[in-house]
Amino acid sequence: MRDIPTTYDQSKESKIYKLWEESGFFNPDNLSGKPYTIIMPPSNANGQVHVGHALGFTLQDIMIRFERMRGRKTLWLPGTDHAGFETQVVFEKKLEKEGRSRFQMTREEFYKEVWDFVQDYKQQTEDGIRRLGASTDWSRNMFTLDPRIIQIVYETFEQMYRDGLIYRGNRICNWCVKHQTGLADLETEHEERTDPLYYIKYGPLTLATVRPETKFGDTALAVNPKDTRYKKYIGQELEAEGLLGKFKIKVIADELVDKDFGTGVVKVTPAHDAADFEIWQKHSAKGGSVPGGKDEIPGPKQVIDKRGKMDLPNTKYHGLKVAEARKVVVEDLQKLGLLEKIDETYKHNVSLCYKCKNVLEPLIIPQWYVAMTKKFKIRNSKFEISLRDLVVNAVKNKKVKINPIKFEKVLMHWMKNIRDWPISRQIWWGIPIPVWYKDNELKISEASPGEGWVQDPDTFDTWFSSGQWPYATLMALDNTPSNSPLKGGEQRDSPPNIGGARGGINFQTFYPTQMMETGWDILFFWVARMIMFGLYKTGQVPFENVYLHGLVRDKDRQKMSKSKGNVIDPLGVIDIYGNDALRMALVVGNLPGNDLPLSEDKVRGYRNFANKIWNAARFVMQNTEGMDATAQLAPAHKVILKNLDKVTNGTTKLLDKQDLAHAAENLYHYFWHTFADKIIEESKAQLANPKTKASTQLMLKTVLETCLKLLHPFVPFVTEAAWQINHKNLLLVEKWPIKLN
Ligand SMILES: [Zn+2]
Q1: Helix (H, G, I), strand (E, B), or coil: what is residue 236?
Q2: Domain assignments of the chain as residue spans, ordered by start
Q3: 423 CA to centre of ligand 1 in angstroms
Q4: What is the pTM of this model?
Q5: Can you name the CATH fold of 609-733?
Q6: Ligand 1 centre distance from Cα of residue 84 (Å)
Q7: What class of enzyme is it (predicted)?
Q8: Fewest CB atoms within 10 A around its CB: which of 85, 106, 128, 631?
Q9: Mind listing the pLDDT tens digit for each residue in 496-507?
Q10: Over the stretch 228-285, which tens digit does the pLDDT of each residue have?
Q11: Gap from CA of 359 to ligand 1 centroid (Å)
Q12: What is the distance in A from the centroid of ligand 1 to the CA of 341?
């Protein structure tokens, strides 16, 4: 009998991975068949590989391995992300610990340090992806700051600008005083708080506000037009006593004012409140674009600066932080008898920066925006549509299918209420905005158009570039010359529109892709925007299917966090229990869109499964040496193989439905409880009987080899190791057992 070790040696995993990688079969150029492509969500190159990565890689690897064995030309394109704001936040924390700050550095120094920091983590992340067993094509590895990617991002920007879909807007944005950048609505968090509500006298009227310190920026008072209490004041200019002396202020009527809030009178402070900004826009000529003149009320008056300090030169309030100013203002109002009362129980929602949790300061800062609901003309067609509706139609018409389906509704709801997307950030780590200014001129150009031109200091929201990832990676690989002479800022003869795709071999072969597997938490941030960009730029959806996974939680369903000490390190777990054990623990019981509780016990349990596979394989191989492959199957063995066909069919069907969890679970039970516990046990007597031996050997070998193939996408290492005992070829590219009829 052959000498095969009695336990599976998981330390050989890296050798097996090398074997696969060197075989060239991770690269679709060495495969034939219909293409099947997954573009890997690029991992943020700013931290360790975590269990969330392990989950995503495992699910994608199962899909890729299954399709590769089914004879598809599979491409799984790996990548890493510079992750703009996210990385800058991580790096600034590091600086803070070292007693440094980016505001003491030049932009170039800062950029260089972050670049090196990211290169380190980029390498670590790629090593992590390898160790997790991802059968991804390293020859097509991509980084979001690859110059070829940046070029495509710039072209899209220019194209959208020429189509009137990108504009510079001077309006209220969510400003983080700590991080010194504007943020999109998606990057804000909301929290209910109880704050004092101050009732302040404005001449004959009294109004309620939580922000008395912004009163210096008031440009009007407003009431609801249906509020009979204040009808006689509408349109009048009142004279009132203030902290800086007497002032005049007009009363206007607007439906946005809630009669039941406070006294029914509100102050309008357009420079420091988003709703007030909207009111001002409605009550000024041309939506606020021309302040003064025919305007019903004056334009915004800024009294707080970007640092969150009062900007009121020559007053005692100048330079005070907002919170201090509020205290002083309230005291002074009290002294002057202008404070009627304070309601200490007022509950309201505040917007916080999703990173530092500081209350955001609404400020008017010019930003670049993508117009989401504005219609534009599709090239070579009279058809007009908005970016928003491109996405809505694609999902409605099932051009993109989302699993689980409930997220289609969630996405539609979000799209319905979508506002224009601010894509500029006042941060340094990211892709610079390719816009140059000189006097009142503006040019879009990668490099300086000449002397005297100054570049826009902002960088892109990282989702503006990663939203283009599916086509940008494939086009970058083709690296075909651009039809957009961005360099030097010349203008194109005719603006290309939808369908302006370029025809390199990678793009032609692998686009649109078949699957986007990612976390549901970035459905809006990323998935929706990829659909939007893909349709805009190429006229095709970027992917046909979306599979959304949930969060990995601890065994008590608590969120994993360093402070709770309940974090499971996937690479550490692999060292102890092996890769296959972690993969099974991540996939069994994991339904799309749902969170998954994970414990070390669960992983340990599946290490036993890996050993079970190894031992069954060992038994079969030792007992089928020199077997007669032409043996006739006994009727009882035929029944076993018929049942095996059902398992094969069931697995294929479940994988086709993207039901990976049940496919894995069913195989686990069949292998352990039917094959190992029953079939192998019962075979022992039959093997000892010369009359039944040959049929038994054939049956055992068939069941084992079929099971190894079916199990391979889920537990690739142990199945490959077992397969290698008896085969020269790789299980990685064995033909998937097809029994469907
Ligand atoms: Zn912040």
Answers
A1: coil
A2: 183-364, 609-733
A3: 17
A4: 0.92
A5: Isoleucyl-tRNA Synthetase; Domain 1 (1.10.730)
A6: 14
A7: ligase
A8: 106
A9: 333 344 568 999
A10: 999 999 999 999 999 999 999 999 999 999 999 999 999 999 999 999 999 998 888 6
A11: 8
A12: 33
Mapping DSSP to helix (H, G, I), strand (E, B) and coil, where does residue 716 land?
Answer: helix
Q: Tokens in use for 675? A: 């094959």
Quick one: residue 565, left, alpha or beta (phi over 0 = left, psi -120 to 50 = alpha)? left
What distance in angstroms lies between residue 309's CA and the mean position of ligand 1's atoms? 16
**Peptide bond preceding 496: is omega within 30 degrees of 0, i.e. cis?**
no
Q: Mean per-residue pLDDT for 173-193?
A: 95
CA of 93 to the centre of ligand 1 (A): 12
Find the 122 Cα to ligand 1 centroid distance in Å: 25
The residue to which tokens 């150029």 are assigned = 29
Centre of ligand 1 to C-alpha 354, Å, is 7
Amino acid identity of 235? G
CA of 210 to the centre of ligand 1 (A): 22
* Tokens 């340990």, located at residue: 604
DSSP string covering 341-394, please? EEEEEEEEEEEEETTT-PBPEEEEEEEEEE-SS-EEEPTTSS-EEEHHHHHHHH
Q: How far is the CA of 180 from the centre of ligand 1 (A)?
A: 8
- Measured in angstroms, how far is the CA atom of residue 96 from the centroid of ligand 1? 14
**CA of 590 relative to ligand 1 center, distance in Å:** 34
Residue with tokens 């260089």, as numbered in its chain: 112
Kindly state the helix (H) or strand (E) to which residue 208 belongs, with its residue range.
strand 205-209
Position 740 scores a pLDDT of 61
Model pLDDT for residues 139-152, shown as the tens digit of each residue: 999 999 999 999 99
- For the chain, what is the mean pLDDT? 93
Distance 360 CA to ligand 1 centre (A): 8
